[in-house]
Amino acid sequence: MDFSNILFDVSDDIATLTFNRPDALNALSPDMTRELDAALGEVKARAGRDVKALILTGAGRAFCAGGDVKAMAAGERTAAMMREYLRANHDRMANLINLEVPVVSLVHGAAAGAGANIALAADFVLATPKAFFMQAFGRIGLIPDWGGFFVLPRLVGLQKAKELVFTARRVGAEEAKALGMVYDVIPEEGAVDAARAFAARFIHASTTAIGIAKNILNQSYNLDLRTLLELEASGQGSCCTSTYHREAVKRFADKQPAMFDWERLAGG
Question: Regarding beta strands 170-172 and 132-134, do their DSSP bridges make them parallel or antiparallel, or are they unpaired?
Fold first, then answer.
């Protein structure tokens, strides 16, 4: 697919997806969502081969301002039309949340409405000091969509999620970190390189193990103990027969450096 509303690139085992409507603060459009589908499908198809991590970010002054409010004002929409539109978006969010590679969102400027929920659907959210998050739906008489009812309470707890939804207020980068929405606040200068360096550390990990662990963790709030234990047993059975595991165990027995050592990789 030819991309224009997003930019999509794969290099050095890292895929980068950039929302690319900077004049509209990367507000979502039908063309953008179709391109988003194609890019996520590409990442899924290449996961574990030449894609070991995904970075989400935005061109220009914002990550993503959410839905295109001007377009909302331009035409009539029935309840049935809106329901079908959101069902398609739910498939996109499920595809994003369940990608079996680490997903890192790099947020600068606004991540508002649906844009906030896309950012928060990542496994790790990095934000620059000028970033802010807003469940802006209440400002125009709407409720959160694009998975907001799933991602937000899991990060900040139910009472805080209610506050952020009911007030539709801005949450700056440092407050977002304190609330658990943001993994780290990084300097504006060199932010893209820092995000790539963070994502690159996962290149050395087992994509199989991360994918299985991510799948189970995403379901862990909704399943009983017995079901989780059964998923654990099944997943571990797959991991222990992988080529990665056999090589890692051999290296340990031979007293060689570990294939994946997060702290050592962080040091360079």
Answer: antiparallel
